[in-house]
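lol ok so funny story. i was supposed to be doing the assay writeup but got distracted and ended up predicting the structure for this chain instead. priorities right. anyway since i did it might as well share w the group, maybe its usefull for someone
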Amino acid sequence: MRLPAGRRSANGAQRRTPARRRTAGTAASRAAAEPAEAGAPAAPVTHRPAAEPPGGARAWLVWGTAVAVYFAAMFHRNGMSAAALMAQERFDTGATLLSMLPVLQLAVYVACQIPGGVLADRLGPRGSLLIGLAAMVGGTALFAVAPTIQAAIAGRILIGFGDALVFLNVIRLGALWFPRREYAVVSALTGLVGGLGQVASVAPLSALLRNLGWTPAFLAASGVTSALLVLVLILVRDRPAGFPAPGRAERISVRASLAEALRARGPRVGMAHHAAAMTSYTMLAVLWGYPLLEQGLGLDPGTAGALFTGAALAPMALVPFLARLTGARPGLRRPLALTLTWTVSLGWLAVVAWPGGLPPLWATGTVIVLSAAGSVIAPSLSFDYARDGMPAQRTGVAAALVNMCGFATVVVATIAAGALLDAQDGPTGGEAFQVAFTPMAAMLLAATAVLTALLWRYPRAGTGRP
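and the output, tada:
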């Protein structure tokens, strides 16, 4: 007996459903595997592992131990700002050679970004952190007892190598131990703790140097870092028990990875934003902030340290909030990025162009606070843009390029400031710092202009339209 047409159609629909599901699944898998068009937001990856990491107390313990290493790395990276004037007397050197201490450290940090990523892939986060900590312990101890500027430079180079292995692996531990819904907050907290390490390198280290002297202060820092190495050895594991190592992504050459990242507009936006937003305060933190306040504005050491610390602390409360906000509303990235970078750039232009010397303390202090805000907010936006237009399994090179661009700008600005101060017989007053900081202000404006051009018709997140 023939079935009615309606029944036959219903059965046919039921029989065809699996085929449609297979077709849809194939299309989704194909879309996830293909790279997104350069300049457009990357398509979301539809494949998910069978189970996400559980998070919980054990995850917070592992991340807390690792992020303490990042705190220490930031402390070591920026310690020269508080020690700059004492180092100049200890090693009897000019501002140009003195600037080589943090500059070479940052240069090594920049150069080791991509090799550090390869090392992390082979050894895992725990092994990479242990190597980085060992390098920082040895470098800080050498810096503490260095009899000459050459030995001090060697110590800072070791610190730079160790520092280069830290941030990437702390972020990776967050991804391996926490479920996806908690990862954005963990990433924001990682940046926040790093900012606190940057703050701790100024006033506390300045107090240690004044009360204990050069060698005991830096040997104490080396001892604390040694204790962190032991904690990582005992407490940190690469992933929760029962979770296998992630599968290997398709390997392409380093050259092909760099070309792929530079073709996509997202990483280029991230590079310009990082250079415009984080350069000024990072340059102050690694060397010239403390001399600017003390010799440029005439503050006593205690007041200078307190002001610099307060300037960094003020915007930190915004970081988790902004991470949640831009994560929920990606369309806010462009106005926030442009507002922040133009404000900082024009602020420093006003500082270097102010007639008759540096602006009053309230005005210069405001620009420093804005620069600190740019520095702590920059990573969440810069590295978010770096993922746009990139296959999910190859965003590491794009992130390395963003980091390298920002810190390369810091290196150039720091060297230029030292050379210009030397040309004026040292940091002798406000006008000398205005001249010395002019190249930095010019680079900020150039990076902000490039960022504006790249974002002019940048696709809105999730729409593909400008």
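Residues 113-145 form the longest helix (33 residues). The two ends are 60 Å apart (CA to CA).
back to the writeup now i swear
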